[in-house]
Structures are given as C-alpha cells and as structure tokens.
Amino acid sequence: MRRLALLLVLPCLLRAGEFDWMTREFARQSGTQPLHIPFFGLARFVIGVAHPAGAHDLRLAVFEHANVGGEQFSRMADSTVGQDWKPIVRVRDSSGEVSNIYVQPGGKRVRVLIATRDQNEVVFVEVSIKPSELMKFVDDQRRNHHA
Residue 121: CB partners within 8 Å, gap ≥ 6? Predict the structure, then answer.
C-alpha cells in the first residue's frame, strides 16, 4: 500500500522539485532570492481542489531587484528551464520587457511556463492545465458574454 501511495505522489513531487530547481538555479545565476508570498500555499490548494478553467496546479516565483538585462534574462531562462520545455512565444518590447512562454505536453494535461522580466522584476509562473477543460471554460465565457 505504501508503494502504491508513493507511486501516485511521486510525479507531483518531481514536478514541484523541477520548478523549485529552476527557481534555485535562476537565483544562483542572478544573485537574487525569490520573494515569500503569504498564503500562496492556500491559493495552490484551492486551485488543486477546484480546478478553475482546467488548472490543476500553479507555481509562482517572483524575484525583485533581479539585475539582469533582456538578452541575459532570455539566455538564463532558456538554460534554466531545460530541454523538456519547448518555447512557443518570445516577446521583447522597446522598454526592455521580455516574456518567454514554454510548454511541456504530458498526456491529458499540458504544463505552461511563463518567464517574464520587467525592469528589475522577474516572474516565473507554471500552471498545469487540462486543455479540454480550458476550452470549455473559454466557450462558456464567450457564450455568457454574448448572451
């Protein structure tokens, strides 16, 4: 019974460990530490139970005073997320804001990672979503908005 419980919990631990490793690696490379966000664990619990818009898990790391330039941030983000993540969107504007969006398909769920830099703030957001539930939510919102 213990082995079965471990097999069921292990994939979640590995995913959490991967995000934690990414944030620790970015902290090491940038020389900054992620902020502690009060009650974020409660928000993650609610998402894990309610699955709003198809979301099944949410991870967040915010770095203030991350003194990295746009090009440097993109290189650091790419090297930090690793090869399992596929970049799908890269945006850089004239003010220096940089946003990279990566995906990692995994069966019925897709993991999406957004890495963004605005002036001296860097944010990593990872969400695990079920695309079919997300599309149903979008369709419902569209119907309700046009009704």
Answer: 62, 63, 64, 65, 66
Average pLDDT of span 93-103? 89
Question: How far out from the chain centre does Cα 32 lie?
Answer: 19
DSSP for 71-130, please give it.
HHHHHHHHHHH-TTSEEEEEEE-TTS-EEEEEEEEETTEEEEEEEEEETTEEEEEEEEE-
Burial class (CB in 10 A: 0-12, 13-18, 19+), 100: buried
Which residues 6+ apart lie within 8 Å of 143 measured at CB?
none
Given this model, what pLDDT does residue 3 score?
47
Sign of the dihedral defined by the CA atoms of residues 70, 128, 142, 40, in that order: negative
Note the pLDDT of residue 5.
40
Specify the DSSP class assigned to residue 59.
E
Q: Token digits for 102?
A: 């990566």
Q: How far apart are CA 124 and CA 135, in angstroms?
A: 24
